[in-house]
Structure formats: C-alpha cells, structure tokens
C-alpha cells in the first residue's frame, strides 16, 4: 500500500496556504469549488478561462487543479489597472481608463466602484502595490504556477483575437466588470468556444448586482443552451453547456 499523505495533499489546505496572503475577495469555499469544477471537467478537451483575475486568488485555485491534470492552461484575462489609471467620478464612485493596444479603454464606467469599498479596500492595496499585473505575476511565481497560468491584459474580445482558430475551453469563470453589457459580452464571446459538457461560472450571482443577474437569466437560464443550474456557494453560480443528449 502506498504511503499517501492526505494531510499534505489536501486540496482545501493547499488552496488556503497558497492564497492566504493574497489580497482579494474570493472566499476559500468559492476557491475550493472552482478547484473541484476544474477537476470535474478534466476528462474534457480545452483550457480554463477566467475573466477578472485581480491578484490571482481564483487563478491559483484553478491552476492548482489544472497542474494535477498536467494538460491545461488557465488564461487569466483582466485589464490589470494600475493605481494611476483610477479616478473619482462626479458622484463619488470610481472608474478607470486605460491606454491599451492603441485603444482608450473605459473600465467600470457602467457598473462603477462604490466610494466606500474603493477607499477602504482598493486604495490601501494600491498604496502598497501600484502595479497590479506585477503583483499578480509575483503571486503566481511564488506558487510555482507560471507554467499553468497565462495572464492577458485586456478584455475577452481582445483575448479571443489572439487565440488559434481551434481554441476550446472546458471551464469559463466570469468575474470581470459586473454590468449587464459586460457580462453579456463575455458570455457571447466565450460560449461558442465552450465545449459541450463544459461549465460556465459567475461570481456575485443573485446577490446585489442586477446587471449580472439579468445577463445570467437572459444568456444562460433562458437560452436553452445550458442545464444543471446551481449556486455552489453564496455567490458562485454555474451551468453546464448542453450536449446533444440534453437538447
């Protein structure tokens, strides 16, 4: 009998140890759920995509699982705005603007960031880490996951312009801007690449973001293209793309 060390190979402990010092909002139970969803889809073709990565907490949870399979990459798509990109709006909320790939990109203009969370949580982070992408990369490197995590600075449309024609994904986690149009755009962009039986996930679903809820209802629940709708944690919602048998 092999001397398997369950304590050292416990996924919950591994995730918790890896992300405990990384700034972000994804709770450990959600990260564990993402880990298990990646594990659940390992028999399918394709890679893993997340839209909205921030400091890398969810990227690391997904990559720890992908590392076990040894066949997939986690593509972490984010604008990775720096401290200098943010500005206060007239109503006291915050948004950012990027000059990226010869384009002026507005961020969080429709679903702005409320004043209190920005000044109490986001601004103190930037005081220590003014360059978000470098912070993300440092966290991935520290966890020795650079081989499995590929950051992309931009949005889902920009990312898909860079992939080969045969690109496929088996798990998509959408946690970018929380406006209706942004979530809808991400779903439209990726569902054609999500293989049958693959899983699409949403953060902050059916909590306090009407735009997220509306996009999920329209593009996922009412579309007829997905089944097995579930909330796995307080705010993580998933659906499975139909196979021929499910149509």
| Average pLDDT | 92
Number of structural domains: 1
Number of H/I helices:
8
CATH architecture: 3-Layer(aba) Sandwich
- Shape call: globular
Tell me what you see in this structure:
The mean pLDDT is 92. This protein has one domain: Rossmann fold, CATH 3.40.50.150. It is α/β, with parallel strands linked by helices and 247 residues long. It is globular and about 50 Å long. A hairpin with a 2-residue loop joins strand 4 and strand 5. It is built from eight helices and ten strands. The strands form two sheets. A seven-stranded mixed sheet has the order 6-2-1-7-8-10-9, sandwiched between helices. A three-stranded antiparallel sheet has the order 3-4-5, with no helix packed on it. Helix 1 packs across helix 3 and helix 7 packs parallel to helix 8.
Strands, helices and their partners?
Layout: H1 11-19, H2 28-40, E1 47-51, H3 57-69, E2 74-78, E3 86-88, E4 94-100, E5 103-107, H4 115-128, H5 132-142, E6 149-153, H6 156-161, E7 169-174, H7 180-191, E8 194-202, H8 210-221, E9 226-231, E10 237-241
Helix pairs in contact: 1-2, 1-3, 2-3, 7-8
Notable features of this structure?
247 residues; alpha/beta; Rossmann fold; seven-stranded mixed beta sheet; three-stranded antiparallel beta sheet; 8 helices; globular
């Amino acid at each position: 009998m092999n001397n398997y060390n369950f304590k050292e190979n416990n996924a919950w402990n591994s995730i918790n140890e890896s992300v405990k010092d990384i700034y972000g909002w994804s709770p450990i139970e959600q990260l564990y759920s993402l880990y298990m969803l990646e594990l659940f889809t390992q028999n399918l073709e394709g890679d893993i995509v997340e839209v909205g990565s921030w400091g890398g907490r969810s990227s690391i949870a997904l990559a720890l699982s992908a590392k076990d399979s040894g066949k997939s990459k986690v593509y972490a798509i984010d604008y990775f705005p720096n401290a200098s990109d943010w500005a206060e709006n007239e109503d006291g909320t915050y948004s950012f603007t990027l000059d990226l790939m010869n384009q002026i990109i507005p961020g969080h203009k429709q679903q702005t960031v409320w004043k209190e969370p920005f000044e109490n949580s986001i601004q103190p982070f930037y005081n220590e880490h003014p360059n978000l992408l470098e912070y993300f990369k440092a966290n991935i490197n520290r966890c020795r996951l650079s081989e499995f995590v590929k950051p992309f600075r931009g949005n889902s449309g920009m990312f898909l312009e860079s992939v080969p024609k045969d690109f496929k994904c088996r798990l998509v986690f959408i946690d970018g801007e929380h406006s209706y149009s942004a979530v809808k755009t991400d779903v439209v962009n990726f569902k054609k690449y999500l293989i049958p039986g693959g899983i699409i996930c949403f953060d902050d679903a059916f909590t306090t973001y009407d735009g997220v809820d509306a996009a999920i209802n329209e593009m996922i629940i009412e579309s007829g293209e997905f089944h097995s709708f579930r909330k796995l944690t307080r705010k993580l919602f998933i659906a499975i793309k139909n196979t021929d048998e499910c149509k």
